[in-house]
Write a structure and sequence with these properties.
This protein is of the alpha/beta class. The chain has seven helices and four strands. Helix 1 crosses helix 3 and helix 2 packs antiparallel against helix 3.
Length: 210
């Protein structure tokens, strides 16, 4: 008896050129790290902008430029990603009703952002010196990073004092995604940058409950 499987009319994924899907995944992974998972769903005027981006990558390839200078990945992989996004947005518009649903989906997928004070929070407040490390808070921050969340150092320190704080944090095993700046994904989401740091939680020794 011979085995049987009725898959004659099903899509032939084995016909996709080897390595192409991985290159596409690398581009999407880069975008997720830079902005947020599936951030493309929230981009305003996405159809025109991703079409334009696709054309730019194709034109760069036609000029014999193989790799995108920012990511180091193939321009054609970027172009394919743009086309996939256009198709994904088109299909999403058919099955998702209302921008609020899309926004809530992104909020559930994206990492939590913590804005964390330095003096009096990560260490004892001995400004302008750096006080004793607050190991409990430092371990909390390191754990959040391991969980995929993002951290912003949110401090009044500037200049050399700020550099000292950043280096001190690195010595404690703590690396921030931004220092006194908004993350690119929040700037993209809200259509601009502001002086106020955008975060989901703010950790500061001077917090006041009202």
């Amino acid at each position: 008896m011979e085995g049987m499987k009725f898959d004659k009319d099903k899509p032939r994924y084995d016909l996709i050129p080897i390595g192409v899907e991985e290159e596409i995944a690398k581009v999407f992974t880069f975008g997720a790290k830079k902005y947020a998972d599936n951030n493309w769903l929230l981009v305003e005027d996405g159809e025109a902008r991703y079409y334009a981006a696709c054309r730019r990558h194709i034109e760069a390839w036609r000029r014999r430029e193989r790799l995108d200078p920012e990511t180091g990945y193939h321009h054609l992989a970027h172009a394919i990603c743009c086309l996939a996004i256009l198709m994904g947005r088109e299909q999403g518009n058919k099955c998702i009703q209302g921008g609020d649903i899309v926004r809530k989906t992104i909020q559930n997928l994206r990492p939590t952002i913590y804005a964390i004070d330095f003096d009096g929070t990560l260490c004892e407040n001995k400004y302008p010196d750096i006080g004793t490390p607050n190991r409990r808070m430092i371990e909390f921050c390191i754990d959040r990073k391991k969980q995929g969340d993002k951290l912003i150092l949110w401090t009044c320190r500037t200049g050399e004092r700020l550099k000292e704080a950043v280096e001190w944090c690195k010595e404690q095993g703590l690396k921030f995604d931004a220092v006194n700046e908004n993350l690119p994904e929040r700037i993209a989401e809200y259509g601009g940058d502001t002086r106020k740091i955008s975060a989901d939680f703010y950790i500061d020794d001077k917090n006041m409950e009202v």
